[in-house]
């Protein structure tokens, strides 16, 4: 019982935070306890959590930079007269050489890596982009409407077709300069390098089966006489070759070409371009290897200079 006449001491107000004392083996540790007023406050985000969340963004930016650098390395090249894949790969420093260049552009080049033509676009350093999709065909109603309105081609389209036809004819026509009695030299004004039947271990037959005309890459090669192309394409050691059956039954072979101007089964006339000289196949440098044969096959060779001279063609 409190003493009479004394006032009771008022209780001190409660704090939202109180101190809890925890025993630690004889020592007391004061721990603040958060009151109910702070129970629903959002916990602060730690530095490590922020770093983890930032990782995907950094990775995405790195990937984007890598892709941009990869695209920057991709270049294009337009094939010129006398070009071939190994030459382009060397001059343009294509990593992986001509095989990588061919693999990246096979859709554009085709099945034969040796047959490339001037104007062909090649991608250097990456695969060629797929061609753009063709526009969808117009509806049958619109097609019928256009057909009924223009049953005849316009004068401008007729003129364009005629011009294109003339250009094609001119490209396929024979160069009659130098043609004598229906025959001409396979290349104009070229000197003979290695002659026919020169002995040497470098040839599988033990001797040179044709003659070599010393000409730079890209020199126009002519059909020595009228005939039919029996072979036009890759021929192993001969590189790109063209073989023509002449009207008299003999066969003319052109080897190591950089590009072809004719195809198998095509008829040609004396002086018509059959291809461009080069250094494809087993070759030490640009030249034309020319043979005259009794059959289209290797091993049936004749002296090509003597044959041409018998036809009235002067060979220096």
3D architecture notes:
The chain is of the alpha+beta class and 316 residues long. The chain is 26% helix and 20% strand. The protein has helices at residues 47-73, 85-91, 97-104, 106-109, 140-149, 155-172, 304-310, and strands spanning 18-23, 28-33, 75-78, 121-124, 211-213, 220-222, 227-234, 240-246, 251-257, 259-260, 267-268, 273-276, 288-293, 301-302. Strands 5, 7, 8, 9, 11, 13 and 14 form a seven-stranded antiparallel β-sheet that branches. A hairpin with a 5-residue loop joins strand 7 (227-234) and strand 8. Helix 2 packs across helix 3. The longest helix has 27 residues, at 47-73.
Keywords:
elongated; alpha+beta; Glucose Permease (Domain IIA); single chain; 316 residues; Membrane-bound Lytic Murein Transglycosylase D, Chain A; 20% strand; 26% helix
Which helices and strands, and how do they pair?
Layout (H helix, E strand, L loop, with lengths): L17 E6 L4 E6 L13 H27 L1 E4 L6 H7 L5 H8 L1 H4 L11 E4 L15 H10 L5 H18 L38 E3 L6 E3 L4 E8 L5 E7 L4 E7 L1 E2 L6 E2 L4 E4 L11 E6 L7 E2 L1 H7 L6
Antiparallel strand pairs: 1-2, 3-4, 5-13, 6-12, 7-8, 7-11, 8-9, 9-13, 10-12, 13-14
Brief overview, please?
The chain has 316 residues and is an alpha+beta fold. 26% of the residues lie in helices and 20% in strands.
Assembly state (oligomeric)? single chain
Q: What structural class do you assign from the helix and strand content?
A: alpha+beta
Under the CATH scheme, which class of the domain at 211-310? Mainly Beta
| Termini Cα gap | 147 Å
- From the spread of the alpha carbons, the general shape counts as elongated
Q: How much strand?
A: 15-25%
Q: Percent helix among the residues?
A: 25-40%
Mean pLDDT rating: 73
> What is the H/E order?
EEHEHHHEHHEEEEEEEEEEH
Q: Catalogue the unreliable spans.
A: 18-31, 33-39, 129-157, 159-172
How many DSSP H or I helices? Answer: 7
Radius of gyration: 42 Å
Label the CATH architecture of the domain at 211-310.
Distorted Sandwich
- Please give the number of β-strands: 14
The CATH homologous superfamily of the domain at 211-310 is termed Glucose Permease (Domain IIA)
CATH topology of the domain at 211-310: Glucose Permease (Domain IIA)
């Amino acid at each position: 019982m409190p003493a009479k006449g004394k006032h009771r001491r008022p209780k001190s107000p409660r704090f939202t935070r109180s101190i809890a004392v925890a025993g630690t083996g004889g020592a007391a540790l004061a721990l603040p306890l958060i009151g109910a007023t702070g129970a629903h406050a959002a916990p602060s985000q730690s530095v490590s959590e922020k770093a983890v969340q930032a990782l995907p963004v950094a990775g995405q930016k790195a990937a984007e930079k890598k892709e941009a650098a990869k695209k920057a390395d991709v270049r294009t090249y337009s094939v010129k007269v006398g070009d071939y894949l190994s030459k382009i790969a060397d001059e343009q420093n294509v990593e992986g050489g001509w095989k990588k260049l061919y693999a990246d552009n096979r859709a554009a080049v085709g099945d034969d890596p040796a047959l490339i033509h001037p104007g062909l676009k090649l991608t250097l350093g990456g695969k060629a982009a797929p061609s753009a999709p063709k526009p969808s065909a117009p509806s049958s109603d619109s097609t019928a409407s256009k057909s009924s309105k223009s049953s005849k081609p316009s004068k401008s389209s007729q003129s364009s077709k005629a011009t294109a036809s003339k250009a094609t004819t001119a490209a396929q026509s024979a160069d009659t300069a130098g043609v004598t009695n229906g025959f001409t030299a396979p290349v104009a004004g070229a000197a003979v390098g290695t002659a026919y039947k020169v002995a040497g271990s470098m040839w599988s037959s033990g001797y040179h089966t044709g003659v070599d005309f010393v000409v730079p890459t890209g020199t126009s090669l002519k059909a020595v006489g009228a005939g039919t192309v029996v072979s036009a394409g890759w021929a192993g050691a001969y590189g790109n070759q063209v073989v023509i059956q002449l009207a008299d039954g003999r066969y003319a072979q052109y080897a190591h070409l950089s590009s072809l101007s004719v195809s198998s089964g095509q008829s040609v006339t004396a002086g018509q371009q059959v291809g461009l000289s080069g250094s494809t196949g087993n070759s030490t440098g640009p030249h034309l290897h020319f043979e005259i044969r009794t059959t289209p096959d290797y091993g049936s060779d004749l002296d090509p200079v003597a044959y041409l001279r018998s036809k009235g063609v002067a060979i220096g």
